[in-house]
Amino acid sequence: MGVEEKSRASGDSPRDGVLPTVNPEVEKAQPPKSAIHPAFYVSIWIAMSSSVILFNKWILSAKGFDFPVVLTTYHLVFSTIMTQILARYTTLLDGRKTVKMTGKVYLRAIVPIGFFFSLSLICGNLTYLYLSVSFIQMLKATTPVAVLLSGWALGVSTINMRVFLNVSVIVVGVIIASYGELEFVWLGVILQIAGVAFEALRLTMVQRLLSSAEFKMDPLVSLYYFAPICALMNGVVALFWEVPRLTMADVDRVGLFYFFLNGLCAFGLNVSVVFLIGKTSSLVLTLCGVLKDVLLVVASMVIYGSQVTLTQFFGYSIALGGMVYYKLGAETIKSYAGEAGRQWADFGNRRPVLRRISIILLSVFVVFSLLGGFAPDYAAGIDPTEYLNEAKSKIGMSD
User: How is the protein disposed in the membrane (predicted)?
Assistant: First the structure.
């Protein structure tokens, strides 16, 4: 049998020098890439999260609406109405159809979680009456520590002293930052610590609930189930605590339009989280959370004139560094730091002028932040009027 006959017998067909091509059906089956860059979702989430915190501070402090429980109840009622609308007219809440929710599960799981959720919201909003936004963000850095301890207490995770020593760095940083706080109010600090503790218990209980495949929920579906019971609990507290002294004058001082906008921002934050989780990784979420906290501290300094001392800056830097190390680990940080360095060098080779401009803008931003935030703590007692009047008298000028 010849070579050609053997080829036919084996079932091989002549290739005619043509390389194999990709199956066009496989190419069609691949999902199309999103036209929107993940940075867009990150920016929206940071903007919404920061806006809600600054907006709440403005209503409770600047506008004198000292009814934090009423404000929290309003947010939850607004979220309840919006989730019901979205469930009926959109597909954003279709994930609830896979959740095997029964009356027994709701009472034994959702209600206790809602209870701690309500307490964390109440304590968190009460804190705005006593502390600055910048100091509140510093205290919130202890959340990973509280979550770790609550996980051990509820048996969700096993005790690991090495991990505990790692997160202790966060505590040390927050203690240093607290020591440098100029407007330290014990009641505000206690309320914030309580809020962090309640939030940690809630997160741990949610983790235990979601460990079952039957109860996997995204943040928006969770809000669909938790918002009604939380609104009811907060409403009962507000009814006896704040409603008796609430008047229409207090509401008019803020304005119905701003209340509506505030509720919309609070609900929009939950929607943005859903899209952020679906478009980014856990690493991006961690780094974005740190970036958001830093931007909030700077925004508090610029908008509300909050004074941040060098001691606080040093302590908060330690806390943020400890939080990133705890969430990512040393090896992950090294690998991504190396990759970031290569990307930065490549950016400098491709766009040298733009890189120089970026460095200059960052330097200017840091200098102005230092001058604007740190200078007042040693110059607050100086009255320039006295020196101006003295200068006028020396040169013969009068008012």
Answer: Multi-pass membrane protein
380 has a pLDDT exceeding 70: no
Amino acid 379: pLDDT:
42
Helices 133-140, 282-303: axis angle to 10 degrees equals 150
What is the rounded average pLDDT for all residues in the chain? 76
CA distance 125 to 28: 51
Cα(237)–Cα(379) distance, rounded to whole angstroms? 43
Got the DSSP string for 267-296? Answer: HHHHHHHHHHHHHS-HHHHHHHHHHHHHHH
Q: What is the pLDDT of residues 55-65, one digit of tens each?
A: 988 998 888 89
Q: What is the CA radius of gyration of the chain?
A: 28
Residue in this structure with the two tokens 């209980």, named with its chain if needed: 205
* HSE, side-chain direction, 13 A CA sphere, residue 239: 6
Alpha carbon distance 230, 103 (integer Å)? 16
Task: Give me the helix-helix angle, 256-279 and 38-57, nearest 10°.
Answer: 150
The C-alpha atoms of residue 238 and residue 73 are separated, in whole angstroms, by 8
**In terms of C-beta density within 10 A (0-12 exposed, 13-18 middle, 19 or more buried), how is residue 126 classed?**
buried
**Which contacts qualify for 62-65: CB closer than 8 Å, 24 or more apart?**
62/304, 63/253, 63/254, 64/250, 64/253, 65/250, 65/253, 65/254
Which pLDDT band, with edges at 50, 70 and 90, does 31 fall under?
very low
C-alpha to C-alpha distance for 207 and 110, rounded to whole angstroms:
12
- Name the DSSP class of 17: T
Q: Check if the beta carbon of residue 236 is closer than 8 Å to that of residue 151.
A: no
Helix runs in the chain, H state only: 3-9, 24-29, 38-57, 68-89, 103-105, 111-127, 133-140, 143-153, 161-179, 186-210, 219-241, 248-254, 256-279, 282-303, 310-328, 330-350, 352-374, 376-379, 384-394
User: pTM above 0.85?
Assistant: no
